[in-house]
Design a protein that fits this description.
homodimer, mainly alpha, 5 helices, globular, DinB (chains A, B), metal-binding (chains A, B), metal ion binding (chains A, B), Damage-inducible protein DinB (chains A, B), DinB/YfiT-like (chains A, B)
């Protein structure tokens, strides 16, 4: 099958390969969550920053609902960057990992629903953040890498070696 | 002008737009370097991690030589992830920022020399790391975001508010 494209959309990476890169990041981030002692996940902080569980809840609130919104234009119940605390029943490592895995499933389910053209369109993500879809998705992932890296400093300061950055298996 | 492409290379983002995303990251990372007090840039550490200047020297050693290598297949004097300490004359904030800016210029100069097909080819970056070019470049940037984020924890623990993550101007 061939399609017509212009030099403007000369590809850096295909959508399929890019999704695989992201899923590799999500596997690594999951391991960083797992590396935290249960209590430190919810109450440890450096310099007044949020505990790692709250940072990860932000990523959970962005990733699944963000990709669903981009695919469907349905932003209902998508709080996005307006941070929400964890429900009492989710305030365990197991609960957080469960939310994480559900979020990964939503990404995998909705990614194929995003049309080729859609990635270059402008979207108002979460009804608030305007930008091209590719840039919006890159931002979701940048934000995941950013907070995960902050978590690795928390781990090091607790004397725990973080999972290897290069391992995305 | 139209070209023929297959669904395999369906674009997530064009090479031109992706370069602009990266340059936005580099502007932000530069501001994080600038936000450090001169002495703390070279000697402050949490949990036995490297000072921020050394992390940034790694990014400098990867980015420019990495893009030059991908564009030209010349990996001479490209130390990459084998970390090197800063020369004595570069051990100032001004010296580090100068290396940073030179690195940005190398990226901008060599990026247009990377052919469309090249981004999907497999490269042995720095003679050591095998992978598709797009994945290798994403890794360079992941690594920048990762160490920059660690620097923001250093800043917070020093009572300094880091530059806004969302601002890439």
């Amino acid at each position: 099958m061939t399609t017509t494209t212009t030099t403007e959309t000369m590809p850096f990476v295909s959508t399929e390969n890019f999704l695989n890169e992201w899923l590799g990041h999500r596997r690594l981030t999951r391991r960083v969550i797992e590396a935290f002692p249960e209590d430190k996940l919810f109450d440890y902080s450096i310099g007044g920053m949020r505990p790692f569980a709250e940072m990860m809840k932000e990523i959970i609130d962005i990733a699944g609902p963000g990709i669903r919104g981009i695919a469907t234009d349905n932003w209902e119940n998508a709080s996005g960057f307006d941070q929400h605390s964890l429900n009492k029943e989710d305030r365990t490592k197991e609960g957080l990992l469960k939310l994480w895995d559900q979020s990964t499933e939503v990404i995998i389910a909705f990614w194929p629903e995003i049309s080729e053209a859609r990635f270059q369109e402008v979207v108002l993500a979460f009804g608030q953040y305007e930008g091209p879809v590719y840039s919006t998705i890159l931002y979701f992932i940048d934000n995941e890498i950013h907070h995960r890296a902050q978590g690795t400093v928390y781990l090091r300061s607790l004397g725990i070696e973080p999972p290897a950055f290069w391992n995305r298996d």
